[in-house]
């Protein structure tokens, strides 16, 4: 039995790397600076100034999926630079909020200017977490040297008194088609060279200017050559 177990473990050893897939296009071409985003002129302008002169504050990035809300928050953390505390979708419960905010009462790691708490899909957080976070967003309880960024597709599940404590930045796919087409053209040249190109404008239109979805569609086209 022990020998069989050893053989089984060896057969699925990570060292063999037989399931080592390359990076997806969405990850490989994820912007790492604010200037690298397609469109989104107003969010880029606001966050560039915040990166240059950060101050304790809470922000809501609101808009449809795939418009760069989370990616821009990550780029901001890199540019400040800030110690990132990323709370994924639907993991924002009371315990996580309290633990994360307690951490932010300590000095950020060496070389970092501040703490940045990123809460994805904040409209899905538990009611208890929303109340706990609400109390911390008051000026008397706000953690030092901390920036909150919450992303959401909609605000109908967030209380008005909670929203009143957030600075809102709208992320829209409107007007992004030109930049998105240029991005696809550059990616195609980098990945496919002189291979016959698909209709980039059609891909962007079918993706409703959603850059993430457009890159995934382009990835499918690359698999056809």
Please tell me about this protein's structure.
43% of the residues lie in helices and 13% in strands. It is α/β, with parallel strands linked by helices and 225 residues long. A 5-stranded parallel β-sheet has the order 2-3-4-1-5, sandwiched between helices. Strand 3, helix 6 (127-136) and strand 4 form a beta-alpha-beta unit. Helix 8 crosses helix 9. The protein is elongated. The termini are far apart. 32% of the residues are buried.
Key features of this structure:
5 strands; 43% helix; 225 residues; disordered N terminus; 5-stranded parallel beta sheet; elongated
Please render the helix and strand layout as text:
Blueprint lengths: L1 H10 L13 H4 L12 H12 L4 E6 L6 H11 L2 E6 L6 H10 L10 E6 L7 H10 L9 E7 L7 H4 L3 E4 L6 H16 L7 H7 L4 H12 L3
Parallel strand pairs: 1-4, 1-5, 2-3, 3-4
Helix content: 40-55%
Most strands sheet:
5 strands, parallel
Which secondary-structure class do the elements indicate? alpha/beta
pLDDT < 50 stretches: 1-19
Mean pLDDT: 88
Overall form: elongated
Give the beta-strand count: 5
Radius of gyration: 21 Å
Q: What sequence of helices (H) and strands (E) makes up the elements?
A: HHHEHEHEHEHEHHH
Strand content: 5-15%
Instruction: Record the strand order, biggest sheet.
Output: 2-3-4-1-5
Supply the number of helical segments. 10
Head-to-tail CA distance between termini: 47 Å
Give a quick rundown of the structure.
43% of the residues lie in helices and 13% in strands. The protein is of the alpha/beta class.
């Amino acid at each position: 039995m022990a020998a069989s177990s050893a053989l089984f473990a060896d057969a699925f050893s990570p060292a063999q790397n037989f399931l080592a897939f390359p990076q997806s296009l969405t990850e490989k071409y994820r912007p790492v600076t604010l200037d690298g985003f397609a469109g989104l002129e107003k969010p880029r302008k606001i966050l560039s100034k915040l990166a240059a002169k950060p101050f304790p504050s809470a922000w809501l990035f609101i808009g449809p999926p795939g418009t760069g809300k989370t990616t821009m928050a990550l780029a901001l953390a890199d540019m400040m630079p800030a110690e990132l505390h990323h709370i994924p979708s639907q993991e924002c419960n009371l315990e996580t909020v309290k633990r994360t905010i307690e951490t932010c009462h300590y000095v950020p790691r060496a070389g970092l200017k501040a703490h940045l708490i990123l809460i994805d899909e904040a409209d899905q957080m538990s009611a208890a977490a929303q109340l706990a976070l609400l109390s911390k967003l008051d000026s008397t309880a706000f953690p030092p040297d901390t920036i909150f960024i919450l992303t959401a597709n909609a605000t109908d599940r967030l209380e008005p008194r909670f929203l009143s404590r957030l600075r809102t930045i709208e992320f829209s796919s409107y007007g992004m088609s030109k930049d998105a087409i240029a991005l696809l053209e550059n990616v195609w040249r980098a990945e496919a060279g002189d291979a016959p190109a698909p209709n980039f404008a059609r891909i962007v239109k079918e993706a409703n200017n959603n850059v993430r979805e457009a890159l995934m569609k382009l990835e499918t086209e690359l698999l056809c050559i």
